[in-house]
Amino acid sequence: MPRVYQHPLLEDISLTQIFFALSDPVRLKIIRKLLIIEKLNSLDLVPDIHMPKSTLTHHTKTLREAGLTYTKPEGRNCWISIRRETFEKKYPELLQLILKGETHTHD
């Protein structure tokens, strides 16, 4: 039986969920990478993040449930992409904040 992933309706997405999802550095790194690449196979994240696949699955699930990403199964792979309407329709300023934070450096 094929996998089916649940994605929240746009009207059910809240800033509380989004901020929780983005509060973790790993999830923020995933989002920033997706903003550059557009679509990733979840297995492509493993070399960059250096953690067990089960932990990475937890992070991608948190992003999906917060309404930030789409996950589409394809065979044994899962393709993850940015959920653009969350940023463009619901929280347009959020995308600029995430991108702006990428250029900020810490001492």
From TrEMBL:
Annotated InterPro entries: ArsR-like_HTH, HTH_ArsR_DNA-bd_dom, HTH_MetalResp_TranReg, WH-like_DNA-bd_sf, WH_DNA-bd_sf
Domain of life, source organism: Bacteria
Domain HTH arsR-type: 7-107
A Pfam match: HTH_5
Alphabetized UniProt keyword annotations: DNA-binding, Transcription, Transcription regulation
PROSITE patterns attached to this UniProt entry: HTH_ARSR_2 (PS50987)
Record PANTHER family: TRANSCRIPTIONAL REGULATOR, ARSR FAMILY, TRANSCRIPTIONAL REGULATORY PROTEIN
The protein, known as: Helix-turn-helix transcriptional regulator
Taxonomic source organism: Acinetobacter pollinis
Lineage: Bacteria, Pseudomonadati, Pseudomonadota, Gammaproteobacteria, Moraxellales
